[in-house]
Design a protein that fits this description.
The protein folds into two domains: 172 residues, 2-Layer Sandwich (Ribosomal Protein S5, domain 2); 120 residues, GHMP kinase, C-terminal domain (Alpha-Beta Plaits, 2-Layer Sandwich). 34% of the residues lie in helices and 26% in strands. The protein is built from ten helices and twelve strands. It starts with a strand and ends with a helix.
Length: 302
Amino acid sequence: MKTTFYGNGKLLLTSEYLVLDGAKALAIPTKYGQYLEVEKLSEKVLLWKSLDEHNRVWFDAIFNISNDSLELFTEKNEVSETLLFILQQTKKLNPSFLLENKGYQITTKLNFSKNWGLGTSSTLISTIAAWAKVDAFTLLKNSFGGSGYDIACAIHDKPILFSNNEHPPIIEEVVLPWDFKDELFFVYLNKKQDSKQAIGRYKNLNTNKKEAIVKVNALTQALISSKTLSAFENLLQEHEEILSNLLQLPKVKKAYFKDYPGIIKSLGAWGGDFVLATSKEALDYFPSKGYSVIIPFTTMLK
């Protein structure tokens, strides 16, 4: 008998970086995500296999299960050691995890490219937590770290307003009453951004984060209730300006797409993964510049 768990992917629309320090962030769960399938075995061993969106194996490993520990049986590499660490942290939160006199065949399956930055790690954490019956936010804190908005997206099926000012974090499902959703597109910038590196750089900044948080909190609330595309675009521009000044980085439109007629907003770590572009011009403009992955807002949103 197989048991299957699923975690939604994520996109952070507002308060990138500042969400780490308690800013209110608007985030959406995506239609893309990751499955984790558990099948019990008679032998006390953990067989792990990870499949990409084309059903190709991109990672596999074997772990030996003893009463109080897990050991990697196959060769060590960065992925296997990270997975072992996550499983060990899971066991600390639930000591009875993997204590049954059985083994397991685990198969994970992505339905998006792991280069997209939609949450390969967060969907893994959320599904392992569901399997082990532990708190996903605590498991994230004890393993990868981060604000937790991505975990919130993994377990919520509607857009959310998120803040980690408290534990557990404050999560409010919201309705986006935008009748201009057909003018919004997510464009992949053809490169994966290193979130850890970006977060490290942000934490070392000597800038006024408190003032920026107050501003983006207000912008986030205004954005949610935007009635027109032009009002929405003005808010996006203002948000880009605040973050550009805070991070001391150029805005993505100014750096790469000066002649684009709509607005372009960075999402998550600046410099890679997806951006949000307004205007149907996106469908012609970005392919002409070599960016072929353009996903309409309504297609991306769960």
